[in-house]
Amino acid sequence: MDEVQRNEAALAHATPINDDKLVRVYLKIRAARSKLSKEYDEADDQLKKQLTVVSGEIMKRLIERGATQTKTPDGTAYFGEDMQVTIADEEKFKSFVLERKDLNWYQKRVKIEHLREYMKANKGQLPPGLNVFRERTLLVRAPKRESEAGTVEVEEFEQPNAAAAA
């Protein structure tokens, strides 16, 4: 039985836990996830750097040979094109789109901040043609702890055991 299963079993059979302990456990779990995420990101950054070196070498070799692709028993590498677009002059582009009556230049999504402003100015009313789905979420903040040096300290994560969780 791994640690997660032990903790789940302990919680299932535990006497009622007060809010203080639940919030403390929540924050410890979140800190552990953050630590794992940081470790993953660091490892992933190293792999991304390695991919950049390898892809650079493949592109260099293709260019030297005047080729657009190379096929090997393990796979095919080839040149592609990724297009990135930014709007240089918003008013000119907007005029262009409206002149042609072609709104397919835009993606279909609503800017939430603008919708909130509209609803606030219109007593909570939605503009026509929209549905809004709300999901209640729980946010938990840890209190800031000041050290003697004046820097914020984060509580260390203690590995809970089944006996302590019960």
Summarize the structure in words:
With 166 residues, the protein is mainly alpha-helical. The protein folds into 2 domains: 82 residues; 49 residues, no CATH class. Helix content is 50%, strand content 7%. It is built from 5 helices and 4 strands; from the N terminus they run ααββααββα. The strands form 2 sheets. A two-stranded antiparallel ribbon has the order 1-2. A two-stranded antiparallel ribbon has the order 3-4. The C terminus is likely disordered.
Q: Please report which band the strand proportion falls in: under 5%, 5-15%, 15-25%, 25-35%, 35-45% or over 45%.
A: 5-15%
Sheet having the most strands: 2 strands, antiparallel
Please list the strands of the largest sheet in the order they lie side by side: 1-2
Radius of gyration: 27 Å
Number of helices: 5
